[in-house]
What does this fold into?
Amino acid sequence: MKKKLLFLGPPGAGKGTQAKLFCKKYEIDHLSTGDLLRDEVSSGSVLGLKAAEIMNQGELVSDELVLSIVEGRLVNIDQGWLIDGFPRNINQANSLKKLLEKINQPLEAVILIKIADNHLIKRLLARGREDDNEEVITNRLKIYREKTSPLIDMYSKQGILEQIEGNDDIDVVFSCIEKALGI
Ligand code: AP5
It folds into this structure.
């Protein structure tokens, strides 16, 4: 079974929801840069305060900060991992590639969860996280299109991208992911 995975998709696509279920069922590590950054914010550290300002505008925090978080975590995992929310741009993707080469753990599959804007906006407004208001969601979507969506083409060319429809019940989306991974 493939155990070195990335979940990609716009804000609200269900990456975090599906990643948690998948990692619980298949006993691999879940690494969410959004969750790790929110932990940093909750700790009240200087780094966290800086990150909160950026996150609350829907912008990306610096590549250096996110990379240091990911690197620190990945080197200690050997039973498999699923990353969600990273990479978010080409620079992060290139850095991840180098890191995975260094630790000899090549990426095995990327799951793209697709969903139309109107559905995800409705979901995020219902959730109501600090960055879930219309203005910030619009900016998160803009950033996703400009900076993150080029990764779709990149992973597709590498032959490791699988596309899933995200606008279905949670268990249906989960089954589609398993099927795409040949489970
Ligand atoms: P992050 O936490 O990664 O936010 P995001 O990508 O905007 O994703 P979301 O958590 O909003 O959505 P999701 O796809 O995980 O959906 P979820 O399962 O939660 O990042 C937040 C911020 O941190 C960024 O804006 C940035 O500032 C910073 N950051 C993070 N990573 C970074 C990086 N690599 N570089 C730089 N900055 C970074 O579901 C959403 C809602 O929908 C939930 O309420 C859920 O219950 C519901 N739901 C899920 N699936 C379904 C379904 N099938 N049917 C109905 N409802 C559903």
